[in-house]
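Researcher: Go.
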Amino acid sequence: MIRIDRIWLATEPMDMRAGPDTCLARVVKVFGAAEPHQAYVFLNKRANRIKVLVHDGFGLWLAARRLHQGRFVPAKCWQRDPLELDQEQLQALVVGLPWYQAGRQNAISIL
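Model: Structure:
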């Protein structure tokens, strides 16, 4: 339904009380601009809530998810720059799995 070409994970936590305008301001601050067909993922400090802001070329979509048990796997604390995720890593992240172990870069290609 919504085309997403690139997915970005912010490494700094965000206050989950933020609405679409505050999230958009954070995207502009962290990423420089909200590009069409890109998703921007933010976690809170406790990593039990996640927000995804998507610019579809016409407007903004804001999705939120909360885990009642466990936590999402945040980026490492030493990573300061936003990270680009692939679709598989995003799927792992939103269900609370270690997203950094998913994706093409961890494929085994030599036996």
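Model: The first strand starts at residue 6 and ends at 9.
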